[in-house]
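Protein in question quoted for reference:
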Amino acid sequence: MTIKDITNYIEELAPLNYAEDFDNVGLLVGNYSTKVTDVLVTLDTLEETIDEAIAKNCNLIISFHPIIFSGLKKLNGTNYVERVVLKAIKNDIAIYATHTALDNSKNGVSAKMCEVLGLENTRILIPKKGIIKRLTTYVTIKDAEALKTALFNVGAGNIGNYDNCSFTVLGDGTFRGNENSNPVIGKKGEVHTEKEANISIVYERKNETAILKALQENHPYEEIAYEIVTTENVHQNIGMGMIGELSSEMDEKEFLLFLKKTMKTNCVRHSNFINKKIKKVAVLGGSGSFAISDAKKAGADAYVSSDFKYHEFFTAENSILLADIGHYESEQFTKNLLVDYLKKKFSNFAVILSEKSTNPIYYI
């Protein structure tokens, strides 16, 4: 089993093009063709994480946070990032990071928070734009159904709970091939008019390579006319954060104490009580202050995330309870999610949950 076999499976859960543009995800250190001994799953990759991997004979670390976030201009061990990368290379240990690719997954970080908190009727808080693209092509009428079927078979035409979605318009297509052409219909050097089907079909960006390959292999023409546009439509099953409901409502203090115990945190920073029962709860793992307005718009009674600044607590404006449980604490169960996911597929090597806490923040 190679690293590529493992990462292909991870990317079914968290495709790399789900990641935010600023992020650095995927295989950061190592070679995809390397055979895997065992896998260590962690939230962060530190020097002690590399030591743990060495001790447990793991040559692949699946990390949530990327150890290399911005460009490295040198590798001489002057900071912890360089030391981690050097130690990993020296010991033939590969490092793979999922980060915002898993954040934006329907079954990712925020979904795990919802599971731990027991939230029901969950949905994405901020559906992602730029994921849905549209292919338009033109084909002979007799070949239209076969072409659509080939595109459907590789993931085109999926919209929410529906598949095989497309739109077809019939019309007249014209073309003239030059002396070097080899037209399937018509004659070179002559203008030809053909009754054609104009097919429009949407698809997720992650499937584009397979869809263009299917188009090339199943279209009868020598030269294929097609257009691709990125739509502004949001994808309801991809995006940041989630919102759901508690099985029964709680008063604010009761909810915060429940949150503190369930999320295993030593501290919950929160906004002012507003004398409101808590039923609908929004969550977002990691730094989530950017989504406060989204949680309010969604009608959440409480919003659970981390890294809120002083002035951001004022934005609650007596309409929502903001709860900052800590960055590490909000994402701590992510490694359990990855371990469980990998164990369902692979049994010929060990998938090991890191025993080390990589939380850099302590409380007194």
